[in-house]
């Protein structure tokens, strides 16, 4: 099965509508799977907490996705 992850990933900060407090980042990415006619969109939320930096976690997740794509296309 040949999966392709679009390297045009996007992220945006997420804030609480009532308080305006920063909640974390939402990462959007697209996976094109062989056998499907259209790409499948995915998203994942990385919550900001006092012990975890969600931006760094999001970047690690995105880099793993892109490295898997590069491995599959060698």
Compile the SSE list and pairings.
Layout: E1 3-5, E2 10-15, E3 22-33, E4 40-47, H1 54-72
Antiparallel strand pairs: 1-3, 2-3, 3-4
Number of beta strands: 4
Helical content class: 25-40%
Portion of residues in beta strands equals 35-45%
Query: Residue ranges: pLDDT <50 for 5 or more in a row?
Result: none
Structural class: alpha+beta
Kindly report how far apart the N and C termini lie.
15 Å
Radius of gyration: 15 Å
Number of domains: 1
Order of helices and strands: EEEEH
* Average pLDDT taken over every residue: 81
Shape: elongated
Oligomer: single chain
Number of helices: 1
Describe this structure in words.
The chain is an alpha+beta fold and 74 residues long. The protein has one domain (3-72). The chain is 26% helix and 39% strand. The protein has 1 helix and 4 strands. The chain has one helix at residues 54-72, and strands spanning 3-5, 10-15, 22-33, 40-47. Strands 1, 2, 3 and 4 form a 4-stranded antiparallel beta sheet that branches. The radius of gyration is 15 Å and the shape is elongated. The mean pLDDT is 81.
